[in-house]
Design goal:
alpha+beta, two-stranded antiparallel ribbon, 43% helix
């Protein structure tokens, strides 16, 4: 019996499949006819063809040898992105208000210099408005730390403090989180930290491990014409 060889369309399908591992899209790009569920089912059948699979695997191995990039390397990168902790890059935290840790929960200043600047500002504003200055008090003391958690019994914020977004120094990121980081955009609205799609990375891992099986059977009574031509 003569060996069953691939057609040019089947080879083209294999080449297109290696672009993004999307069987339906590869089916269309290769030049096959069919839309919607018909294209999806036909692509699944074509992908399950043993000769097509052998061709795809041969091309993959040749590409790995040529580029020195193996599937394992790509999978490891996707896996690292999928499992990186976004909180190591940017996170939201609740921090204390000025009254949380002041003496008797009075307004707390960072240091004496901050208090002096506030006094000078109050006097300047009063002079400009020809009014008697309202000098702020410093009975709450000094040492305000804007990074610690709220005092649970603070009478000013009721233990809620206020929200604060912390963006980490990207120079200090771990290798895994650095893969997740995709850049930063600075605008008048603030800073936007961009991250790679972790769900998509996990989907790519699952697809390469064969966890997603293309449907091999028709649903809803759809009839595919000339299905045997694909084999």
């Amino acid at each position: 019996m003569a060996e069953h060889k691939l057609t040019e369309l089947q080879k083209r399908f294999g080449d297109e499949y290696l672009v993004d591992l999307n069987a339906t899209a590869a089916y269309r790009r290769a030049g096959y006819k069919g839309k919607g569920n018909v294209a999806e089912v036909n692509a699944s059948r074509l992908l399950s063809n043993a000769k097509v699979q052998e061709y795809i695997q041969t091309r993959q191995k040749a590409r790995e040898k040529r580029t020195e990039i193996t599937q394992d390397m790509v999978l490891q990168r996707w896996w690292a992105i999928a499992n990186a902790d976004p909180n190591e890059l940017i996170y939201h935290r609740r921090v204390c208000c000025r009254h949380c840790f002041g003496v008797d929960h009075a307004f707390q200043w960072i240091d004496e210099e901050e208090y002096k600047r506030a006094v000078e500002s109050a006097r300047f504003v009063a002079k400009q408005n020809k009014q008697k200055p309202v000098i702020p008090l410093n009975i709450g003391g000094y040492g305000f730390d804007p990074t610690i958690r709220p005092h649970p019994k603070c009478p000013a914020c009721y233990g809620e403090g206020h929200g604060d977004v912390k963006v980490m120094d990207t120079r200090d990121l771990t290798p895994e989180v650095r893969m997740l980081y995709a850049g930063v955009k600075v605008s008048k609205e603030g800073i936007e930290v961009k991250m790679r799609d972790q769900d998509k990375a996990l989907e790519n891992v699952a697809r390469h491990l064969g966890m997603f099986k293309d449907r091999l059977e028709l649903e809803g009574g759809i009839t595919v014409k000339k299905l045997e031509d694909l084999l």
